[in-house]
Amino acid sequence: MDKVKELLRVRNTLVRECFAEFLGIYILIIFGCGAVAQVTTSSLTRGEYLSINLAFAFGVTFGVHVSRGVSGAHLNPAVSLAMCLLGRLPWRKLPVYALFQLLGAFVGAATVYAQYRDAIMQYSGGNLTATGPLETASIFATYPAPYLSIFNGFVDQVIGTASLLVCVLALGDSQNSPAPKGLEPVLVGMSVLVIGLAMGSNCGYAINPARDLGPRLFTCVGGWGVEVFSAGRHWWWVPLLGPMVGSLLGTAVYCLLIELHHPAQEGAPEDCQTVKNKYAIELEEGTSKPGGGGAKDGEQGEGGGEREREECTMKWLQSLRNSLKEEADAKSFQERLQWG
């Protein structure tokens, strides 16, 4: 078994990151689009709009949790673009990340279809369309409301994605109010939830080019045909380009209004040498304390001094460990985001 594990183990960092991005967005899609399929095919008897929002939020939460330790859990080309703009992700990785995010979304949509195929066919009468009262293409990709213009839809995607990026950047900013350690996935999911609750009625809050284009490509080859690209007055490019512009806007807004104005850090964790010097003094003083060298008898005095030295050494080591942990915690979320 060990030999098999060693044979299957991928050592290339970029490949590992791509696998993580693939799996993270796959989880997002099977939970999010799975909820849409359940609500749609049950004619609202097995859920409603809120359950779709919750499913996407939890899908993001678990997708981020699964992949963040490996790739930073972007799960979204718009987030990857922001990380490149901030110098936290090499530009050469952007197209590769985006490709695997797209593939993960495509396979996620295929999985949802495999699970709900019979329900989709029964609901639609076997007629897979992107328009009409029994359309089912919107289970997988986003489409505009009848009243929505292309321009207003583009603005919608820019604002929604910019809001997401402001939240994400704030959660990873060690000099602002970073997410508590371990709660990063939950808070990222909450940001998606509130965007869905506040900005979802116009066109379904794609805010993620891969989340929309991957499932749209699947529906194109899975039975719905090219209508998925012509529906909604050729809507398909709006959730592709709008989020990328929103990424630029959200990153600029956060940097210009918050990040660029951080003062020099005060109360930063003591560096290793400071901690060492501080406790070296106590270590020396421990041998000269009245109880340290001359207690009731020679043996007890020597033992007391030794205990003082041991206690002070342990105190120094614990402080050093805490200092290193604080430094690591302050950087960990941003580093994982590339987010580092």
UniProtKB/TrEMBL annotation:
Residues 284-311 are annotated as: Disordered. The chain crosses the membrane at residues 20-37, 49-67, 96-116, 150-171, 183-207, 235-257. It is a multi-pass membrane protein. It is found in: Membrane. Residues 296-311 have a biased composition (Basic and acidic residues). PROSITE patterns: MIP, PROKAR_LIPOPROTEIN. CDD domains: MIP. Signal peptide: none annotated. InterPro entries: Aquaporin-like, MIP, MIP/Aquaporin, MIP_CS. It catalyses: H2O(in) = H2O(out); glycerol(in) = glycerol(out); urea(in) = urea(out). GO terms for molecular function: glycerol channel activity; urea transmembrane transporter activity; water channel activity. Gene3D superfamilies: Glycerol uptake facilitator protein. GO terms for cellular component: basolateral plasma membrane. Its main location: membrane. Keywords: Membrane, Transmembrane, Transmembrane helix, Transport. Belongs to the MIP/aquaporin (TC 1.A.8) family. This is Aquaporin-10-like. It comes from Acipenser oxyrinchus oxyrinchus.
